[in-house]
Amino acid sequence: MTRRGLILFGLMSLIWGIPYLFIRVAVEEVSPATLVFARTTVAAVILLPIALLRTDIRSVLERWRWVVAFAVAEIALPWVALGSAEQHIPSSLAGLLVAGVPLVATVIAVGTGGRDRVGPIGVLGLLVGLAGVALIVGVNLGSSSSTAFLEMAVVVVGYAIGPAILARRLAGVSAVGVMALSLSLCALVYAPIAFVQRPTLLPSAEVLGAVAVLGLVCTAAAFLLFSALIEETGPVRATVITYLNPAVATLLGVAVLSESFTAAMAVGFGLVILGSVLATRPTGSRSERRASTALDAA
User: Fold this and answer.
1) Could you tell me if 194 and 211 are in contact, meaning their C-beta atoms sit under 8 angstroms apart?
2) Domain positions in the chain
């Protein structure tokens, strides 16, 4: 990876590690749907003009069905589910569970033909990662809502499907254009819901600040950086930031919100990361991998 790629990678790992903290703060006073509306609106207002000036938006609109699919998988469903889940579970726990995204992405890739096969090491990785997720959930199941864990499952699956759509169905079109149109679409969809669920009182300065950070930094700036990272490293390698985001989320949750972090959760997180690395490890010989890469590029 180039120096520019490493810098972008580090920034993205940090910027997409902090939303869990601010979401937890925001949903104390606003509904998850209202938060999604506010976050996507702020980001769309910033990104849409940039996309119109920098890209040929018509090429993105030609694949509007896949743009809609990406918006639903990456933003519309996961963000509202994440906000709802964080009304019942700590932000650090939410971040740890999102570490399972590469595991689900591997299963999806194999099931849809994105990968030819998963070798013995890959299967071992899936089992190790599953054991890690089970350990994290198991030690928190008694003290947390089971519905919240189901909502986190929606988040994980959505975050695994989104990049797959971007890589396989939206390759070659402007990532900024895709992000801008997706955010605009989600803002329009959530506008009437947010109106109905609007808070009766003006949220506190702390919550307003959290919403501003989520919209400006964790969405608008993050998607600009993410599109640059995709251009630098490709959409598949760019998703490796999933390995580091949970660590940032956990550290912030423990340090700022005084959330608990047990030894069992640490072991579970380690197993998830180890399993993800093994599961996403390329299979076959070096020559076979080169041939596969050439075919994918064609």
Assistant:
1) no
2) 3-297
